[in-house]
# Entry
Amino acid sequence: MAEAILAGGCFWCTEAVFRGLAGVSAVESGYIGGQTDSPTYKQVCSGTTGHAEAIKVTYDPAVISYADLLDVHFATHDPTQLNRQGGDIGTQYRGALFPLDDEQRAEAAAGINRAQAERSEKVVTTIEGPATWWPAEDYHQEYWQGEGQRNPYCLAVIPPKIAKLQKGFAEKLKG
# Structure
């Protein structure tokens, strides 16, 4: 098994997308890239800790590659928005990749290049790290499967992301 850490706006919304991929065994919401130890959701939302809301994806590289995860990531959020995704504004919603080794770092750069080749607007996703991963509070984990399906924000944001996933990556979905 391998891990990938990706930031692309609200972690509730990105977690919901990646849970549907074949080869993904776990998705954990958390915080990365800041200067505060053990940050809380309230601290991260204040924009003062430097952390991004992110997900840590545990996956089987024999089933889905890191490059595939990056392509899904770039297709299901807007990598041209600086420090925001839709109505979520602040550095905690930045698009960023946190490679865990040199191979992922090289692939992250290649993924950004692929994403840039598909759009005219500048891709502003950054490659950051190394950085410490901090799991989000329990109530943020598997949010879409529980509370999220009753949350108007999630109902507005997540289904279009899942539709993009289903349209562009049908062969990568869990059966």
